[in-house]
Amino acid sequence: MTSTQDAKAPAGEVVLEAIGLTKHFPVRRRLRDLFSKEHDAVHAVDDVHLTLRRGQVVALVGESGSGKSTVARLLAQLYPRTGGDIQLHGRSTTVKGGRNFRGYAARVQMIFQDPFASLNPVHTIRYHLTRALKIHHNAGDDLDAALAALLTRVSLTPPERYLDKFPHELSGGQRQRVAIARALGADPEALLADEPVSMLDVSIRLGVLNLLRDLKERLNLAILYITHDIASARYFADETLVMYAGRMVEGGDSETVTQTPAHPYTRLLIDSAPDPDRLTGDIDPLEEDRGNGEPPSLIRPPSGCRFHPRCPAAMPRCSTDLPVRLEIGDAPGHWAACWLYDKAGAQ
Amino acid sequence: MAEPVLEIRNLNVDYGLGDRAVHAVRDVNLTLHRGEVLGLAGESGSGKSTLAYGLTRLLAPPGVITGGQVIYHPAQGSSYDVLALSDNGLREWRWAETAIVFQGAMNSLNPVHKISTQLMDVLKAHEPNMSAHSRAARAREMLKLVGISADRMDAYPHQLSGGMRQRVMIGMALILQPQVVIMDEPTTALDVVMQRQILGQLIELRERLGFSVIFITHDLSLLVEFSNRIAIMYGGRIVEEAPANTIYRDALHPYSKGLLSSFPALRGPRRELTGIPGSPPDLAGMPAGCSFHPRCPKAFEPCGSAIPVLGRPDTPDGAGRSVACWLHPAEQPVG
């Protein structure tokens, strides 16, 4: 089961693109609200742009509630978007189910966070992988050879040892490798990995991330890596995008964003990460965070910049005008949605 | 070094009985000193949570303590073995002398009671002579101490965010001013920003109230920053114990080194990392000899047959640390 597509498709070719992607979840209306014309909604994702290219990893970093997992599910077309566009190879796509969805899933596959929940406990690994291969017509003439190739590709060797096992007989790391193998069974062009290693033991994580990187290179895949751990984004991803309260706040190549963060929220994230070189006990509650350390409600998000209630550098403009993407200028493609970088309207 | 407040001696905890018993904690010797933060690091199957529940006698069946002692040194009076306490003695000891903040503490609060009720409940159980008025005042004081405004006193747990619930749990643990606080993965489910805030608050409280902490987590980089000493567990045993900085800069055990290099660095140069090959051991089917040897890059002749003893290594700083590895045979066994 070798992909013939990678031989032809150039590295860097755009596979999947999100343009102005928006998702609002309606809030359940109570009886008295039925008489009101207002419809409350959770503004989970607003105006997200991202581009996935072959052979590249884009990391989407954010805390819980930032909207990053929702972005992944929107890109996987698991539920409909409220606004914006998703383009597969430049063509706008909306798939609701059935054959269309299967066709989409053959190109865009998802790997979930919980290796315990994403495999069916009553079926063997053989069943899981066979199903993936058969649904996407990749089984070929020799099913056993195809299965062995899949397991070898995720370093679960010898394949015979794993094929007839049930998920509970495997470790977390092995289960996640099976989930990756299942995704590869569709021979996809893009992989959406939603916190693929967060639930694995620390010493196993790197093995799985290195595997994903290896697959990206050999199969020329486009990978979206969603995580709350910005250090792993630096290690694994080419490009890093930071999300806060449903909006994107910063983007650029991983090294630049993590070493010279521009947006005050990114700086807060990086300062908060554990730092073994800081002296023992020298932890001060961050004076920089003027809020209570928590993200805002997404039902009534703050006006203007959603980070302004917590931002140490907030200006009057920040509470009224939603910031646009502004170039930082220190590295190509490094931008932040922050009025601090508005050279044109400089105070 | 300050005097000990809690001494764990040769603790053994099994799950199940007889031949099929799984040895979750094996021959653990560990000392917590007054005013110290002792970090306990390990992954799945290391036994760190079992150790915490074992020493506080909170093991759910089929967990059973099969040997050892947990000597507690109160501020006043003579020391005693926690494992030998009667039910009444245990009830008095819990919360007042030693408190525990559980993993997933956010879900440990009773959803049908206000947080003030739950805080005051602790006081009612341990200080029956306190008036209702003083109980409420103390609860309010505790909430203020952990950074929650008094107007949230009558809130139900579901009305608070995850971070706030965690802080309520910490407040509850400190309300009787115990000497020892055990925290089992207290910030795992929280954002890094919230994590840093809460730990900062904890440090402040520790300086003010003077308790000792056993901090259990898999996040070794957090321990290096936050604790005074770190003990690393693998396969139910302690494999290394040393001051936090020593572990960070000069770990001796290959597992400690492997674990340290499993954290991608956010600062400094970008390094190629591999983690540790293989998987954490299956406690039901442990390898012979050192439980880490199948994954160890430095394994040699004795590792597959004899279990290394935890003891002081023959290094210049050997006096303040211990390691269980045939590369550094123990000069002086611990325990």
Automatic annotation (TrEMBL), chain A:
The keyword Iron-sulfur does not apply. The keyword Nucleotide-binding applies. One of its GO terms (biological process) is transmembrane transport. SMART domains: AAA. GO terms for molecular function: ATP binding; ATP hydrolysis activity. Residues 268-302 are annotated as: Disordered. Keywords: ATP-binding, Nucleotide-binding, Transport. Gene3D superfamilies: P-loop containing nucleotide triphosphate hydrolases. PROSITE patterns: ABC_TRANSPORTER_1, ABC_TRANSPORTER_2. Residues 29-270 form the ABC transporter domain. PANTHER family: ABC TRANSPORTER, ATP-BINDING PROTEIN, TRANSPORT ATP-BINDING PROTEIN. This is Dipeptide/oligopeptide/nickel ABC transporter ATP-binding protein.
From TrEMBL, chain B:
GO terms for molecular function: ATP binding; ATP hydrolysis activity. The keyword Disulfide bond does not apply. Residues 8-260 form the ABC transporter domain. One of its GO terms (biological process) is peptide transport. InterPro entries: AAA+_ATPase (IPR003593), ABC_transporter-like_ATP-bd (IPR003439), ABC_transporter-like_CS (IPR017871), Oligopep_ABC_C (IPR013563), P-loop_NTPase (IPR027417). Keywords: ATP-binding, Nucleotide-binding, Transport. It comes from the Bacteria. The keyword tRNA-binding does not apply. Belongs to the ABC transporter superfamily. This is Dipeptide/oligopeptide/nickel ABC transporter ATP-binding protein. It comes from Paractinoplanes toevensis.
